Amino acid sequence: MTSNVLAGSPGDCCFTRGVKHSGTPVGRAEMFAGVESYVSEPSSFNGGTKSVILFMPDIWGPFTNNAKLIQDYFAANDFFVVGPDYFFGDTVDTHDNEAGFDRMAWVQKKKVVADESVPKWFSAVNEKYGSDAKYCAVGYCFGAPYVLEWATSSDAIIAGAFAHPALLNEDHFSNIKKPLLMSCAESDWTFPLPARRRAEDLLVQAKAQYCIHVFSGVAHGFATRGDPNDNDARWAKEESASSVVRWFQRFAKESK
Predict the structure, then answer these.
(1) Residues sharing a CB contact under 8 Å with residue 179, sequence separation 6 or more, in sequence order
(2) Cα-Cα-Cα-Cα dihedral sign, residues 36, 42, 48, 52
(3) Where is the Dienelactone hydrolase domain (predicted)?
(4) pTM of the full predicted structure?
(5) Residues catalogued as catalytic
(6) pLDDT, tens digit, for every residue of 142-167?
(7) Strands, DSSP E only, in 157-203?
């Protein structure tokens, strides 16, 4: 029996470029199992158990300035952060002004490629940072299902989070085994209000450990592409990132 869809395929809101955020990234590019990735690490590390965030990006990839700055923020809070380019350079912006670009065909093709590459990528990340590290995962739009799959099917991560998700079904929530933080937009065609409420019902039935933040005055994409000159968008973006840090710090501490 097919599980009902709750967060749909990326739509028009996901393809909107949004606002480029200002700042100078400090991370670097590194290859993991053939997947080029953005890596941002704490400026100082005194040894002990590492806490690692797997940053699963939206269709713009991990190398936009906005994505880099978010990853750097996580690293500034003592996490080792790795974000894969599971699009292999073919991110959505490379198709700007392309006549006849079929968005849905592109998404379906990229999902197949990403599904194949992510397990190998994670194995390589695990090899570098160690099986004793505390792994957390956050997904934005296209990246959300990878977080939920880890959170429902394995002990790969200790906690998960997502913001304005895509490509999720009921099983992702009813089978959850790890703590989940949800950053949601008031206006979200991909994950609308009825779907969000159904997701919460399933989390309650599953006796899951979860937290849901719903930000008024913002739309899908606010956590990565929101306008910092808009008070609602800026606050929601910053609070989403900050809550991800606090959520992961909580469970990394508890699991030691």
Answers:
(1) 158, 159, 160, 208, 209, 210, 247, 251
(2) negative
(3) 37-251
(4) 0.95
(5) 141, 188, 220
(6) 999 999 999 998 789 999 999 999 99
(7) 159-163, 168-169, 180-187
